[in-house]
Backbone:
């Protein structure tokens, strides 16, 4: 007899991929429209302080070379056509193909965002389990206060605070960048990379801990009030036996879902953290592209981050579907009811 959950996986994947394509198309339209109505003129932003030395004819030539003299619909059609052929365009501010800029910046941001995502999940889940198992105690109140404070604090404020305390006052960490100033990236050692990564990573990890901790705490406290938990306690099981055998397993799925769903928030936080610490990642490139009117790079980063976050959410949905038998049975029953 075939497993109804596994047999529905191809249909689930096809549905998610179709939704992802629709989301990417919608984001592309909105991002392009926002770029066109932006008050930042790409030619003026590109010329910068040299604008006074460039005449109207030369500016018109630059605009024509970039295709900016075409109607917006023609520009969008050309951009989408090139996109489908793998051509993301050319970055004006980095003077390199957009694909190369994104690849280089992404590999710089990946350790920062990936480790922050992992650590925030581990620490947040551990704090949530401790708070939920000791609901109403001083430990619960301290953890909740800590989580509420972090969830209400802006990322840039946390980053600036860490910078002032650990870099300026104590001198324990570098002030900026992904490596020592004046050293080419190829010569930066692994220890130096970790040293420069520490503070941005701490700021992003603190950002992600609160949400996971609060949701896990609520789930553990709810599970401990169930009849099954009370029955286990009546049979002589200790509180931590019930928490570890029943609570952790049931609270893990919502925590994983929240963790994947927080990828977008984490990337948003990385933009601010990279700006504060001058960390040369994808977030800093996005800000530079927006400020200096590098439309091809800005649009490509927008689509890339949308794809990355959407795939993360899709993986969370599929994990939930595969691991939780109640969802599989509900979909199987619904499928049978509809014939």
Residues:
């Amino acid at each position: 007899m075939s497993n109804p959950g596994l047999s529905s996986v191809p249909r689930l994947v096809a549905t998610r991929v179709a939704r992802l394509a629709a989301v990417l198309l919608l984001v592309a339209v909105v991002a392009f429209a926002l770029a066109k109505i932006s008050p930042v003129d790409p030619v003026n932003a590109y010329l910068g302080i040299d604008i006074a030395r460039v005449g109207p004819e030369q500016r018109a030539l630059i605009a024509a070379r970039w295709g900016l003299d075409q109607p917006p619909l023609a520009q969008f059609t050309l951009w989408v056509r090139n996109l489908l052929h793998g051509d993301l365009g050319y970055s004006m501010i980095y003077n390199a193909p957009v694909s190369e800029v994104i690849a280089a910046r992404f590999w710089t941001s990946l350790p920062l965002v990936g480790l922050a995502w992992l650590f925030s999940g581990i620490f947040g889940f551990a704090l949530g389990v401790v708070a939920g198992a000791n609901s109403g105690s001083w430990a619960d109140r301290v953890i909740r206060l800590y989580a509420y404070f972090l969830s209400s604090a802006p990322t840039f404020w946390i980053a600036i605070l860490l910078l002032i305390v650990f870099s300026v006052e104590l001198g324990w960490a570098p002030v900026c960048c992904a490596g020592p100033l004046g050293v080419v990236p190829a010569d930066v050692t692994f220890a130096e990379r970790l040293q420069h990564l520490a503070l941005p990573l701490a700021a992003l990890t603190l950002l992600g801990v609160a949400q996971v901790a609060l949701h896990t705490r609520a789930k553990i406290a709810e599970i401990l009030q169930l009849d099954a938990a009370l029955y286990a306690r009546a049979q002589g099981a200790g509180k931590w036996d019930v928490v570890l055998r029943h609570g952790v397993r049931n609270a893990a799925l919502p925590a994983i879902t929240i963790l994947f769903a927080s990828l977008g928030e984490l990337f948003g936080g990385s933009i601010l953290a990279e700006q504060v610490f001058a960390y040369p990642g994808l977030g800093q490139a996005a800000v530079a592209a927006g400020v200096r009117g590098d439309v091809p790079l800005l649009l490509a980063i927008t689509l890339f981050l949308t794809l990355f976050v959407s795939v993360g959410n899709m993986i969370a949905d599929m994990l939930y579907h595969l691991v939780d038998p109640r969802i599989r049975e509900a979909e199987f029953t619904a499928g049978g009811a509809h014939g």
User: Anything to note?
Assistant: Residues 13 and 318 are 8 Å apart (CA to CA). Strands lie at 90-91, 96-97.
